[in-house]
Amino acid sequence: MGVIAVLAAIVGNCIGYAIGYFGGHALVLRFGKYVFLTPERLEKAERFFERRGGLVVITARFFEGLRQAVGIIAGTAEMPWRRFLVFTTIGAVLWVALWAPLGYLAGNHIGTIYTDIVRYSLYLLIALGVLVAAWITRAVLRRRRRAAAAEPASLPDARKAPDARKAPDARNG
Question: Distance between CA atoms of 85 and 92, rounded to whole angstroms?
Fold first, then answer.
């Protein structure tokens, strides 16, 4: 049963990869402006994916929504297919290795566990939202501090004494 789950996860991600690879880039360039995804941001995301794409593919498996989108993202970023296949396989094996035994151990109590998870998922989502907001605020403040620190260095200092070699002022004779 676990082998089928791993294969299904791999095939699903490969279909997403194909969608992203063959159509994602053009779609992002055409419609990305509606979701604030400019060509510059796409290029930045592609560079990030070149460096950290493998880790993203593996860890995305454990996050609902991202699990389904990571194949499309990897295809759009034009991650080499073989590399994607290796990392999505690792992620699928780890995901099934975590959830299959947990499902087996939960047994007939899965309904109760699911009810508790649903009840507390709202709190978890709120906490995650607060963390993301804090991270974004931190990034914005850092960027503003860097810009403010760089700004005075680029402007001439108005407090300096006037240059004595300048021509005398017409009022002073």
Answer: 10
